[in-house]
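Marked as duplicate of an earlier ticket. Keeping the data here for the record.
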Amino acid sequence: MDANTIRQKFLDFQVKKGHKIIQPAPLVLEGDPTTLFTGSGMQPLLPYLLGKEHPEGKRLCDSQPSMRLQDIEDVGDSRHTTVFEMLGNWSLGDYFKEEQIRNFFEFLTKEVGLDPNKIYVTCFIGNEKYGIPKDTEAAEIWQKVFKEAEVEAKIAEIGSAAEGDKRGIKPGERIFFYDDKENWWSRGGGCDTTPIGDPCGPDSEVFYDFGEDKQDEEKYGLAHPASDGARFMEIGNQVFMQYRRNEDGTFAELEKKNVDFGGGLERIAAAAIGSFDVFKISLMKPIIDKLEAISGKSYETNTDEMRVIADHIRGAYLLAAQGLMPSNKTQGYAMRRLLRRAILRALDLGISDNFLAEIIPIVAKNYAELPDSILTHRENALGVMLKEETAFRKTLSKGLRELHKLSGRKENTQKLSGYDLFKLQDTYGFPMELSVEECYREGIELSEKYLEEFKEALKEQRERSQTASKGMFKGGLEDHGEQTVKYHTATHLLLAALQKLVDSGICQKGSNITADRVRFDFNLDHKMTPEEIKSVEDQVNEWIEADLPVVFDEYDKNFAKNTLKAHGQFWNKYPEKLKVYTIGDFDNPISREVCGGPHVEHTGLIGKFKIKKEESSSAGVRRIKAVLE
């Protein structure tokens, strides 16, 4: 049974049980600054779990695409992914434990067809400190359900996961009690860290048994449901919200109790095909098959690389299809990181040319059944991702080359420092995270304090930017305030746009920049047409919206002029060491100018650029007055 079929079966099943299907939320939630992405199906429903009435009633269900980047370093094993789909159903003060447990068991065994003998469950052991009793009610319901399915279901009290690693499970045991680190839900984690006023309660997790041979006992200890080993995989969690934390830290039972269920579509699909490897399900395997065909290598011998690529491209596609653009800030940076990590792993497979055009249509087909209400820009996703791939491959080639050059220059006893990694990021646009990953892969030793050194280098750069000289360009800044700095960077973009669209021989003849506007003089022998003004303005705004990096470094004057081809007017007056600012890709920049700074760190900070007036300044010199809106 494929994943799309399971998704539809789940929704149809819940409708039969009286639930209303609600539309999934977008991955990026508007007006929620507390999180980068929607990380679960319940996240958009929190107001209703706190008591607000939902317009669709008390029984709800959906299938919610979700993303958790905290799992990014774990991708490569058989079950962790950054993006996943959460099947969810909720009871808002309606049914409670018995109906929920029976319904989920019925769905797994009757609709999906899982063997009930391979299903194991956990319950909450209680907390004496807060007077919260053991959830014997849920355990007893499970015993009845298993008995009706003719499955032996003894109860075991485990306590902590660490105790489980030592104890394992005994013959006939199927229901396991764990502490609040495993079987208590609140937004803060365990009982001690449950936020005041929040709904919370015990949960009952459901696991699928993939067989005793899947447990690596030397690494993970004896097998039990909460073990990190591969024998048991959690496929669903039923949260019974029956308490609220009081102001004094105690817990009181809620008058109206809620059920919050979430089941991983990918994991249920893995159980349905009897594979503990979620990358063999229908949402993943076609991607893996295509990677094998492109690379000429097998999944069995290149497992980690192909899993990372498959997962990350799925995640980046869902973000692009929602309308997100790669950038250097917040969600856009997360999207960029997913794509870059995927491209880096493709290089490990020997895929040195662009390959996303062959993968993305497969991903798009897999998610064709998701509604347009959340994938509002799916027709643009391919173009957005291909543009990022092309740009990053240029950065990657240069950055990797420079990284290995730096490593090769070190003495045997020396290690790469955070200052080295900062130079790679600042000069070549090669992100620090990728430098670290490459060092680990290639066995290049890093300084024990590389992260602190990197932060120190970043701090020093910012301090230099704040005190940089104004004397390297004619005219100057009124001050070094934030808005003035934005105008300064916009002026560099303005010059680049004039050179690109009006006349490549245009040079700056003077400027005056304040916190309210920029006045920019340049050589031109004619009055600009309205079409030229509009095209220049549009080009500057396009570069601003692209959120391009703005970096600088100090170079020898001859190197800056002859090798970097930096734009400058007063080469005979410049010192032998000078500062050069680059906007965009280092090897193919939008702008590269000799300049004392300061500038914003990326163009997305600038705002909308508007040309208010174009006029004569003097013979052969025109003047543009512009503002940021």
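See parent ticket for discussion. The longest helix spans residues 381-409.
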